[in-house]
């Protein structure tokens, strides 16, 4: 038990020391791939940015023209639907996007016209943009399968009646210099939590 106690104490100490590190360094430490910043002096990067901006603008224009709203009780549900529709808009450019189905970072993988990879996290935002509320999470790089650029597109949402959400705008972010801070978390799952050896009593199943 003493070893376990020391391990826990050391983990907490280390987690408190990992503050305000660049996201690119976290990616390099957890994946074997190279991480590239978007360089607007590079014609290929400039073309990539233009394609993304064009798609986002056309996406918003289409939603406004058709008065489209996204239904959902939780903003995460709405965000997932927005991802799906936005990917269809990206397909109208020279980009080749694909949705990454598993949970976690990132949401979208893109091949540009130069066959380079860009990963995109899509976020639905309904709070103040200056809020200190935690809104970006990273647990592992299991979905990252190549070197590339890492961007985030945030959708500005407002809630209307009956859980319908309007998309008002967007922001495109280069994540490479995003400052990341850890928060120590101890967790378990239902399989371990509801094991027979822990259950003290339970109701009888209804017939």
Write the SSE topology.
Elements: H1 2-17, E1 21-22, H2 23-30, E2 35-36, H3 43-66, E3 70-71, H4 75-90, E4 96-99, E5 108-111, E6 117-125, E7 148-159, E8 164-174, E9 179-180, H5 190-193
Parallel strand pairs: 2-7, 6-7
Antiparallel strand pairs: 1-9, 3-8, 4-5, 5-6, 7-8
How would you characterize this protein structure?
The chain is an alpha+beta fold and 207 residues long. It has one domain. It has 5 helices and 9 strands. The strands form 2 sheets. Strands 2, 3, 4, 5, 6, 7 and 8 form a 7-stranded mixed sheet that branches. A two-stranded antiparallel ribbon has the order 1-9. α3 packs across α4. The longest helix is centred in the first third of the chain and has 24 residues. The protein is globular.
General form:
globular
Q: What is the count of helical runs?
A: 5
Portion in helices: 25-40%
Number of domains: 1
* Structural class determined from secondary elements: alpha+beta
Provide the residue-averaged pLDDT: 90
Described by strand count, sense and barrel closure, the largest sheet is: 7 strands, mixed
Taking the alpha carbons of the first and last residues, their distance comes to 45 Å
Following the backbone from N to C, one meets helices and strands in this order, namely HEHEHEHEEEEEEH
Radius of gyration: 21 Å
Q: Could you list the spans in which at least 5 consecutive residues all have pLDDT below 50? A: none
Q: Give the tally of β-strands.
A: 9
Strand content: 15-25%
């Amino acid at each position: 038990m003493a070893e376990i106690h020391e391990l826990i104490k050391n983990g907490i100490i280390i987690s408190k020391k990992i503050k305000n590190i660049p996201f690119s360094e976290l990616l390099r430490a957890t994946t074997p791939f190279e991480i590239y910043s978007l360089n607007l002096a590079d014609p290929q990067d400039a073309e990539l940015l233009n394609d993304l901006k064009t798609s986002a603008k056309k996406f918003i224009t289409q939603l406004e023209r058709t008065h489209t709203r996204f239904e959902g009780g939780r903003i995460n549900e709405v965000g997932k639907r927005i991802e799906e529709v936005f990917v269809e808009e990206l397909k109208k450019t020279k980009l080749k996007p694909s949705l990454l189905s598993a949970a976690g970072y990132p949401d979208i993988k893109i091949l540009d016209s130069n066959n380079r990879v860009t990963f995109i996290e899509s976020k639905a935002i309904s709070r103040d943009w200056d809020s200190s509320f935690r809104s970006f999470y990273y647990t592992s790089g299991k979905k990252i399968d190549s070197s590339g650029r890492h961007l985030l597109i945030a959708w500005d949402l407002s809630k209307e009646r009956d859980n319908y959400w309007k998309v008002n705008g967007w922001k495109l972010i280069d994540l490479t210099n995003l400052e990341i801070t850890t928060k120590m978390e101890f967790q378990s799952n239902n399989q371990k939590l509801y094991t027979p050896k822990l259950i003290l009593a339970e109701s009888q199943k209804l017939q």
